[in-house]
């Protein structure tokens, strides 16, 4: 009988999909389970032949007591304070884990770096083989290099540690101005220390230089990207392990657009350069912004004899664009991205790590327009330019002429194609599935 392995993912599709790479490597020998907080992700996971466990979204050390008491139909400062003192979130989450372990007794648990504080409670339950996975570049700040979200090398950004034991909001000034909130925050920080101590961990295990999630020094972390995409190998910390492009070459797609298959044969016979444009699996901004950008691409198509394939990930947006689309401008809800990239000459994307990795996989130069400036997209765009595997632009302010000039540069200057193919070759030489599988298993006890 196979042993079980559990993945604890943040409720983010672009985190779950890359983690399938590790799951696929290990599924030969283990049963794979995913702990998720939303039924929305169940079909995606089950279509990939993995099992799902639904759980709460409560995590220790993150100040979730107010949400916890509200869920239990309580409110007010006193109940909030009482919940912190009673460590309600810790107890509830630990109870969930005890029930899961009693049923599955997993050989190993892989925790999304953006759900990292679950590690504390699992350590307290004396569980072995606890690891982190990260679909993004390293989230730690290393001196001399931009952090993951920074769009330049100007070093004008302030360090903002996500260490739950520290806060700039606890001060005499805030105590006078907002006494209730400051005292609650102070109590929360005191009990965060108690949570660590109760679970057999030193405060020193918390990293001060992780600005996007709570980092734990010394706990193995598997990054689902190649180290070659970082600015330097100096960024790698001793407990970090890079797994290359980490792409499943035969992904299981959801709800593909049937019109795409009707057009694809015609598209590849046209023999014009294909410009593929997609903005990822999740976009929370106003739809009009995407619509306005794609309108600019229609204007670009009027000037350049190219074929455009647009994947909107939205039926409504697709319908709006189709009313304005012209010849050789194809619009779909969802397409099999790897199949399109295999034939594409340029990939216009938002700078998500999944998109960039797939572009490198097929050696397609990139034109990056970051949408979410809070996480890795801007930093990824900087890395694309740094490695000379593409260009980047401003999603709002670039006009059709700006986009035309960038597309011409990518098509006419062989540098970008040569650089991305060289990077592709380096990565293919450094990583392979068997090597990655053995690396991961070498950490099992």
From TrEMBL:
SUPFAM superfamilies: UDP-Glycosyltransferase/glycogen phosphorylase (SSF53756). It comes from the Bacteria. It holds the Pfam family UDPGT. GO terms for molecular function: UDP-glycosyltransferase activity. Keywords: Glycosyltransferase, Transferase. InterPro entries: UDP-glycosyltransferase, UDP_glucos_trans. PANTHER family: EG:EG0003.4 PROTEIN-RELATED, FI06409P-RELATED. This is Glycosyltransferase 28 domain protein.
């Amino acid at each position: 009988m196979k042993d079980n392995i559990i993945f604890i993912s943040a409720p983010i599709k672009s985190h779950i999909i890359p983690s399938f790479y590790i799951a696929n490597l290990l599924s030969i020998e283990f049963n794979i389970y995913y702990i998720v907080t939303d039924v929305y992700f169940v079909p995606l996971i089950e279509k990939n032949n993995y099992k799902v466990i639904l759980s709460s979204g409560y995590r220790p050390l993150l100040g979730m007591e107010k949400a916890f008491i509200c869920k239990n139909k309580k409110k007010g400062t006193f109940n909030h304070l009482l919940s912190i003192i009673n460590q309600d979130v810790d107890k509830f989450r630990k109870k969930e884990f005890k029930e899961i372990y009693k049923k599955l007794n997993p050989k190993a648990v892989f925790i999304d770096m953006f759900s990292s504080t679950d590690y504390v409670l699992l350590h307290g339950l004396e569980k072995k083989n606890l690891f982190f996975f990260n679909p993004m570049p390293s989230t730690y700040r290393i001196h001399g290099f931009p952090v993951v979200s920074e769009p330049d090398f100007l070093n004008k950004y302030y360090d903002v540690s996500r260490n739950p034991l520290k806060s700039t909001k606890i001060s005499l000034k805030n105590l006078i101005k907002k006494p209730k909130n400051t005292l609650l925050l102070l109590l929360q920080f005191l009990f965060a220390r108690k949570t660590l101590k109760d679970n057999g961990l030193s405060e020193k295990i918390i990293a001060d230089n992780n600005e996007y999630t709570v980092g734990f020094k010394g706990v193995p972390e598997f990054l689902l990207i190649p180290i070659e995409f970082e600015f330097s190998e100096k960024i790698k910390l001793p407990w970090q392990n890079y797994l290359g492009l980490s792409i499943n070459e035969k992904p299981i797609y959801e709800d593909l657009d049937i019109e795409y298959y009707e057009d694809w044969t015609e598209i590849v016979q046209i023999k014009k350069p294909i410009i593929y444009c997609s903005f990822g699996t999740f976009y929370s901004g106003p739809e009009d912004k995407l619509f306005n950008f794609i309108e600019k691409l229609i204007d670009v198509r009027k000037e350049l004899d190219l074929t455009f394939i647009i994947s909107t990930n939205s039926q409504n947006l697709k319908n709006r664009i189709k009313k304005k689309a012209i010849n050789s401008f194809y619009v779909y809800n969802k397409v099999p991205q790897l199949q399109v990239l295999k034939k594409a000459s340029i990939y216009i994307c938002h700078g998500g790590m999944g998109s960039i990795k797939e572009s490198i996989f097929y050696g397609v130069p990139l034109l990056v327009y970051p949408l979410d400036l809070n996480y890795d997209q801007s930093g990824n765009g900087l890395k694309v330019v740094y490695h000379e595997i593409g260009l980047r632009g401003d999603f709002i302010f670039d006009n059709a002429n700006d986009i035309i000039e960038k597309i011409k540069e990518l098509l006419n200057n062989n540098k970008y194609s040569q650089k991305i193919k060289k990077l592709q070759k380096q990565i293919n030489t450094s990583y392979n599935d068997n090597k990655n599988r053995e690396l991961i298993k070498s950490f099992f006890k």
